[in-house]
Amino acid sequence: MVRKFGLIAIAATTVVLAIVSAAAARPTAQAAATASCSKGVSIGMQAPITGPAGSIGSDQLHWALFYVTRWNKTHKLKLHLVQEDTQLDPSKASTTAQALASNASVMGVIGPAGSDEVQAVAPIFRKAGLAFASGSATRVSLTGGAWKGYFFRDVPNDGVQGPTDANYMFSNLGVTSGSSVMVVDDQESYSTGLADIVGQALSGKGVKVDRESVSQKATDFSSLIAKVTSSTKVVFLPFQVASEAQLFAQQLQAQGKTAIAFGSDGTFDSSKFTVNGSYISFFAPDVTTIPVDASIVNAFHKQFPGATSPFGAPNYVLAQMYATAITKACKDGKISRAEVRKDVLKVSLKSTILGGPMRLTANGDVAGAKFHIFKIENGKYVTVA
Amino acid sequence: MNWNLFVTELVSGITHGSVYALIALGYSMVYGILKLLNFAHGDIYMVGSFIGFGLITVSGGATNLGIPVWLLIFLMLFCAMLGGGLLGVMIERFAYRRLRNAPRIAPLITALGVSFFLENAAQLVLGAQYQSYNSFSWKNPIALHGFTLPAQARISYAGVIVIVGTVVLVVGLTLFVQRTQLGKAMRATSFDREAASMMGIDVDHVIVATFFIGSALAGAAGVFNGIAYQQVWPYMGFTAGLYAFIAAVVGGIGSLPGAVLGGLTIGLAQSFSIGYISSTFSDAVVFGILIAVMIVRPSGLLGRAAVSKV
Amino acid sequence: MSTDPTDPNAPRVGVDEWVASHEQRRVERPGLLGVAERILAQVPSPAFYLGFAVAAALLPVVTSNGYVIDVGLNTLLYMLLALGLNITVGYAGLLDLGYVAFYGFAAYGYAMLASPQFGLHWDTLAVIPLVVIATALLGFLVALPSRRLVGDYLAIVTLFFGELFATVYQNGESMTVFGFSRKYDVTGGPNGIPNIDQFHVFGARIGALNYTAYYYVALIFFMVLLFAMYLVDRSRTGRAWRSLREDPLAAELMGMPVNRLKLIAFACGAGIAGIAGTIFAAANTAVFASEFDFTSGLLIIVYAMLILGGAGSLGGVIIGALVVNVSLEVLRDPGHATWVFYTLICATLVARMRPWRWLGAIIAGTAAFGFAVHAIISAAWPRGVHGQAAVGGLLGSGLQHWVALPSNPTMIGNVAFICLVLAVLVLTLLHGWMQKLAMIPTLYLAAFVWENRLVVEPSITRLILVGVILIVLMNARPQGLLGTSRVEIV
Question: Which ipTM did the prediction report?
Answer without folding.
Answer: 0.87
